[in-house]
Amino acid sequence: MRILVVDDEQLALTSMRRLLRRRGYREVETCASGEKAVKLIREDDFDVVLLDLLMPDLHGLTVLEQTKPFRPATEFIVLTAVDEVATAVKAVRLGAYDYLVKPVENERLFLALERAYERKGLLAGLAGASSGQTAGGGPAAFGEFLTQNRRLREILAYANVMARSGMPVLISGESGTGKELLARGLHRAGPSPDGPFVAVNMASVPESMFESQFFGYLRGAFTGADRNYQGYFEQADGGTLFLDEIGELPLSQQPKLLRVLEGKTVQRLGDPKSVEVAVRLISATNQDLDRACREGRFRIDLLFRIKAVHIHLPPLRERDQDIGVLAEHFCRQAAARHQKPVQGLSPEALETLNRMQFPGNVRELAQLVEHGVIVADSPWLEPEHLGAEAAPRSPFARVPCSLKDNHDAHIVFVLRQAGGNRKQAAQILGITLRQLQRKLAELRENSRWQGLLADI
């Protein structure tokens, strides 16, 4: 079990690490800063985090809120002197497994640790139960996600479990990361998979038409209303309403949406009667809604209503081991769609893609590969088909080379496949972390490898 202890008091960190190691927990790391803890948890994989609340730079609840959506498989135990019911309830709502008030008995702490670890395993098991598994090992409801990335698989497993709760879900992530794809998976794995799935892009709904589009209207309710119309809520009754780009909803319309979510009824324009609706709400955004609340652009009570469960999708640059898998998939699809005899991507083309940042994420990758298939004049996509005429030849291409060059190429390859995680790469290579760091410093001096190591 990998444990991270977060506390601003060095004495508390030292004592806790000594106590845990005495009990047999060998993989214990400590962190004395809330801001550093956020970075550490997002970048590394811990089983359990013991989290203090009162820290000078960042409150523990903020740490929890900023990390749990990124690491849903990590269990958090709040360990604090703050004995307040409201704070404990908020911590649990944000995803904490337990809330322990200092001073806590050692056996109570160890029991909480073991149960948190058991829950982590239970959730992973439940994620694949009853709904089956895809060939890639993920939940069947999310089979459209092609990934070899461990973090994304954990997120999909968490989503599969939370889907069955029927609670509102907020999906955050950059444009092109697959938020609607995840929403459709949540619908399939949810309590009403046979019900309708209604997707609405909030940016496309004019402010003046919000009520008529969402709540519907009766014939004659206003000029141009020549028929009865069921709004989005009634269309989604018994199923799921997906609100994409929820951050684009004007502030003046947010109370109207909140009223429907709280009352579970809608009233068509021109109709004195209300209609009950049973709708599972899923929202998505590429904005920071917490900041929008602080700036007065988004209502905090509406955010709490739509954010009962928060899932964050990582950008493609943080799961670069998926680039090759996705590129080959998009290549096969595009070749069939355009009836081109393209068989796949050359090693040089794959390496060219691996060097790109993809600000448009998976959507940009799909468009780039499709463009390559359209213009390709050979059975294999080459860098020039991807608009990368100046791309250097891949150092991973199979060409005669010295044993040293082959050795260096293998180290760089493993580092990239491990997503820059030096500990994991060192374990795969069978060397110590110190040896890998020395080798990495040496490779950075060689211009041949600088481009491939720039993001590691």
Q: Can you put this structure into words, describing what you see?
A:
It is a single chain. The protein is α/β, with parallel strands linked by helices and 456 residues long. It has helices at residues 10-23, 34-43, 60-67, 85-93, 106-128, 150-163, 179-189, 210-215, 232-235, 254-263, 289-294, 300-306, 323-338, 347-354, 361-375, 403-417, 422-429, 433-444, 447-453; strands spanning 3-6, 28-31, 48-51, 75-80, 98-101, 169-172, 197-201, 239-244, 265-266, 275-276, 279-285, 309-312, 344-345, 380-381. It has four domains: 3-127, Rossmann fold (3-Layer(aba) Sandwich); 161-314, P-loop containing nucleotide triphosphate hydrolases (Rossmann fold), CATH 3.40.50.300; 317-386, Helicase, Ruva Protein, domain 3, CATH 1.10.8; 403-453, Arc Repressor Mutant, subunit A, CATH 1.10.10. Strands 2-1-3-4-5 form a five-stranded parallel β-sheet, sandwiched between helices. Strands 7-8-11-6-12 form a five-stranded parallel β-sheet. Strand 3 (48-51), helix 3 and strand 4 form a beta-alpha-beta unit. Residues 389-399 have low confidence and may be disordered.
